[in-house]
Amino acid sequence: MAKHEAKKDDAEPSVHIAHHPTRHRLAKSLLAGGVAVAAYGLVYAGGTSYFSTHFVPGTTLNGKDVSWLTEAQAAELINEDTVSYSNEVKAGDLEFSLQASDIGFSSDGEACAHDAMAQNDATPWPLRMVSDKSILVETGIEYDDDALASAVEQTVKEYNKTATDPEDAEAAYSDDTTSFYVKEGKPGTKLKADAVVSAVRASVSTQRSTTYPADADVLVQPQHGTDDPQINETVNRANDMLDLEIPVVVGDDEQTRVSREQIAQWVEIDDELNVQVDEQAIADWADETLASDAKRSDDDYDYALDANATAAALLQNLEDGSSDAVEVELTATKKVEETPKTVPGSWDKSRGRYIDVDLANQYARLYDASGSVIWESSVVSGDTGVGRGTPVGTFSVYAKETNQELVGLDYNNDGLPDYRSHVNFWMPFSGGYGLHDATWRDSFGGSIYSYAGSHGCVNLPYDAAASLFSMISVGETVVVHW
Predict the structure, then answer these.
(1) For site-directed labelling of 373, which of 273, 332, 346, 423 has its Cα 20 to 30 A away?
(2) What whole-number distance in Å separates Cα of residue 117 and Cα of residue 132?
(3) Contact predicate 68/128, CB 8 Å
(4) Predicted pLDDT at 21
């Protein structure tokens, strides 16, 4: 049998080489990156070399653009500018110009550019391409400092003659908050000459063409600001007074309570930052609001409000920062017994029996049919001081009533009756006018009607009113006259 001998090639397996596209791309990328880095390195090195002798773009030297210039070119630029150099100054509202000849100005462009090039660091030049750099150099610049100071000071002095002064912070009062506060001060238009000189000197010393200092640096500022301790202390002291609440009493009765809005009418802060309290204003207030309710009377004396003494007591409380009750001060006046008046022969025979009300003498009488006075009394009639006089004429009593409440009209337009008065004996004779007792009065007759009279009625003492009420009838004639 023939033997089959395997071929060597048939006995060994075949070998296949795999292809990887990702590795190929990575290799290409690394190659490209290397090329880029190499290119950047060449560009960077070239730029560093170039900008070691040229100013980087975006560079200014003493305010002049020296981008891409060599040191020599920058020096030439500076020297050219020296010939026509001037400095435009704007300080606050003041504007003026300084010429080179005014201040003996000169500059050495070569020295200035040389110093500037030393500051032109070429190493980070790529970053400098996107960020400006300002170089200020004083080297080689000369000027007459005395001439500069004199020129600026004289210009500012003339300007300040018509400029406005600053306003100091001050103590003020707010109606909205009912309190004192520190009102903020503000600069005016006046300038500080030394500050303007310093600003111009700094500009000229680096050959810049403009001087624009900030207002806060050159304007004369207020002497007293909002944080001034004296102003704040004064405002706090005044507000402490407004915070008080002081009861005002007569004996055990509280008449009123003085608080913020009322105290604010009396307190002020003067120009010297002193808290002042107007004692006369307190006295006037006491006389107007407390006098009528505070008065008292006994068998021997009438007691009236002492407005000045009461004001002094309230003033002391305010100065002491005390909310203790203040006792109303009263003055005593010994009562003078009135001598009953008679006016003989005043009876009008034709009238017979009638009630005679003599306004001129503030006296009333009841005559019988024979002319004898069977009742008489002092009275208080309508207040002529405010136009509320008692009507004159011949009338008749049209009612007799006891325990009545008399209600006034609303002349002051506050939505409420002007008064409500309880009377024990009411004898009306003309509309709302009548004779009645007035137990709230301590005295009758005299001139009371001219300053503290009634609303038009004829006021009588209690006993006199009771007696008359018992003696008359409805229909009784009443004659009122001066």
Answers:
(1) 423
(2) 15
(3) no
(4) 60
| Res 49: pLDDT | 84
* 222-242: b (≥16 Cβ within 10 Å) or e: bebeeebeebeebbebbbebb
At position 295, the amino acid (one-letter code) is: K
Report the distance separating Cα 210 and Cα 203, nearest Å: 7
The residue length of the chain stands at 482
Amino acid at 321: G
Task: State the Cα–Cα distance between residues 225 and 191, nearest whole angstrom.
Answer: 18
Q: Rounded to whole angstroms, how far apart are CA atoms 376 and 367? A: 9
Distance from chain centroid for Cα 168: 14
Residue bearing tokens 């210039």: 69
Computed on alpha carbons and rounded to an integer, the radius of gyration of the chain in Å comes to: 52
Phi, psi of 127 (to 5 degrees): -70, -35
pLDDT at 176: 95
> Coil, strand or helix: which one is 157?
helix
* b (16+ CB within 10 A) / e for 373-410: eebbbbbbbbbeeeebbbeeeebebeebeeebebeeee
CA 159/CA 109 separation, integer angstroms:
35
Q: At residue 93, what are phi and psi to the nearest 5 degrees?
A: -95, 0
* pTM confidence score: 0.47
135, 120 Cβ separation under 8 angstroms = yes
- Per-residue model confidence (pLDDT) at position 303: 86
Phi, psi torsion values for 458, nearest 5 degrees? -100, 105
Backbone φ and ψ for 337, nearest 5 degrees, come out as: -65, 130
CA 311 to mean position of chain CA atoms: 28
pLDDT of residue 24: 58
Neighbours of 105 (CB within 10 A): 21
Hey, what are 332's tokens?
A: 């005593």
Q: Which domains does the chain have, with CATH numbers?
A: 59-160 (no CATH), 170-226 (no CATH), 231-334 (3.10.20.800), 349-481 (2.40.440.10)
Beta bridge partners of 404: 423
Average pLDDT by stretches of 10, the chain with 482 residues: 39 48 61 63 82 88 88 87 92 96 91 87 75 84 96 98 96 96 95 98 94 96 93 97 96 91 96 95 93 80 90 96 94 63 69 95 95 95 93 97 88 75 96 95 93 95 97 97 93
Q: Convert 412-438 to b/e letters by CB count within 10 Å (16 or more is b).
A: eeeeeeeeebebebbbbbbeebbbbbb
